[in-house]
Design a protein that fits this description.
Layout: H1 6-16, H2 20-29, H3 34-43, H4 47-52, E1 59-67, E2 70-78, H5 81-84, H6 87-103, H7 107-112, H8 122-133, E3 137-147, E4 153-158, E5 170-176, E6 179-186, E7 193-194, E8 196-203, H9 208-225, H10 237-250, H11 256-274, E9 280-281, E10 284-288, H12 289-300, E11 305-313, H13 325-332
Parallel strand pairs: 3-5
Antiparallel strand pairs: 1-2, 1-7, 2-3, 4-5, 6-8, 8-11, 9-10
Length: about 325
């Protein structure tokens, strides 16, 4: 019997979009013959999912789940908004969001977790849904925030691109010593399901109700403004380098000392537009977010530290193919 390697399983999965366990079974049944394994999967009724796996899935839902002092976000894509309104699809996204809490933002773990009420892992259950509903779907990414006594950490996992779909792309886990995780869902179609999801981690031993109220207002601000980072120190180095290069190009020929002052001023302006703590607060544009936090501290009766946030918007970074009906009619006429 031919040895079935992890590389072979990976290649078959990338070719068909079918789950890893089914790919391994297909290769074993066909003695490692790749083409025969594809036919085997087709014969088992998984071809429908495989055939659709290369189609762009840029619609869908962002799901949010909170349990105690932990919260998770997950993006599950579909090809059309029509499917996003399907009750079965919505139920699946809500369940995956709850599983993401247990996965603590580890997307590789999430896709292997057992999907409740089925005999499959999450990835295989999604493949079944593709066959059932009739269009491509992907569990694209997940993120989690949690509040744990005495522990502070921020962990990021870079997940490789899977096949032609950027599935389960990123994960984040943030833990603060004491406080609250607060959420907001924009364009909500059902509890915890919408187009934009935001989680905010506030570290404080102040009044719980005040933390929740302010956290929700802040989450709404984040949904509206989509900040690049908490502050200038958190902006990716390549982004800062690009901003500096633009300022240098616009002010070329100026003395070095003058140029540095211009760059410093320009980056300060960039921070006011793009860094959360420096932004004008959308609920009161006369104050910055930092000032709004100070106001909230007075109401909460204790210092509040905005540790971090996660914002997830449906379809970020995906190329959505527009329908060119004229071109389609022209193609069909020949």
């Amino acid at each position: 019997m031919a040895e079935i390697t992890a590389s072979m399983v990976k290649d078959l999965r990338e070719k068909t979009g079918v789950g890893m366990m089914d790919c391994k079974t297909a290769l074993a049944a066909t003695k490692g013959n790749m083409d025969a394994a594809v036919d085997w999967l087709r014969a088992k009724g998984l071809a429908k999912a495989a055939k659709k796996s290369t189609r762009v899935a840029a619609e869908g839902l962002v799901g949010l789940a909170i349990e105690g002092n932990a919260g998770a976000l997950v993006e599950v894509n579909s090809e059309t908004d029509f499917v996003a309104r399907n009750a079965k699809f919505q139920s699946m996204v809500a369940e995956i969001a709850r599983l993401a809490l247990k996965a603590r933002g580890d997307t590789e773990l999430l896709k292997t977790m057992h999907f409740p009420g089925s005999r499959h892992a999450v990835a295989e259950y999604v493949a079944e849904m593709i066959a059932s509903i009739g269009e491509n779907m992907t569990v694209r990414r997940t993120a989690a925030l949690s509040v744990v006594q005495g522990v502070v950490g921020n962990y990021m996992h870079n997940i490789a691109k899977i096949g032609e779909n950027q599935s389960l792309r990123r994960a984040a886990v943030l833990e603060v010593s004491e406080g609250a995780i607060v959420s907001y869902v924009h364009n909500q179609v059902a509890p915890g399901l919408g187009k934009i999801g935001v989680l905010v981690a506030l570290e404080s031993d102040g009044k719980r109700d005040e933390l929740q109220q302010f956290g929700r207002m802040l989450a709404m601000h984040i949904a509206a403004t989509n900040p690049v980072a908490l502050d200038l120190a958190g902006v990716p180095p390549e982004t800062l380098a690009r901003e500096r290069a633009i300022l240098e190009e616009k002010n070329s020929g100026k003395p070095a000392n003058v140029l540095e002052k211009i760059i410093a001023s320009g980056l300060k302006s960039y921070a006011k537009e793009n860094c959360l703590l420096e932004q004008a607060y959308v609920h009161d544009s006369t104050r910055t977010v930092t000032q709004a936090i100070a106001d909230a501290q007075a109401k909460a009766g204790a210092p509040i530290k905005l540790v971090n946030y996660v914002r997830m918007q449906l379809g970020e970074g995906l190329d959505k193919k527009g329908d060119d009906f004229a071109a389609e009619v022209e193609r069909l006429s020949h």
